[in-house]
Write a structure and sequence with these properties.
Helix content is 39%, strand content 0%. By secondary structure, it is mostly helical.
Length: 77
């Protein structure tokens, strides 16, 4: 089954598939899980689409690893 990145309910367990798209729905999810400082950049978008198996929880955790403060717990974790 193909996930609807525009309107589907995204959870931390949602698998990033070949049809992944940086939609407003994805941005809302990542803002909720990474905080108001979240924004996408080219390197991070390339990492999301690199073909390795990951979930949206992995995506949020990686953004926090790259951009969060040491010891900061991501919102929604």
């Amino acid at each position: 089954m193909v996930f609807n990145w525009h309107g589907g309910v995204i959870t931390r367990q949602t698998v990033v598939d070949a049809k992944y798209s940086n939609t407003q729905n994805v941005r809302r999810f990542l803002l909720a899980h990474c905080g108001p400082q979240f924004k996408l950049d080219r390197d991070f978008m390339a990492w999301i689409r690199d073909g390795s198996a990951k979930t949206m929880g992995d995506v949020a955790a990686e953004w926090m690893r790259r951009h969060g403060q040491p010891g900061q717990v991501p919102p929604g974790s």
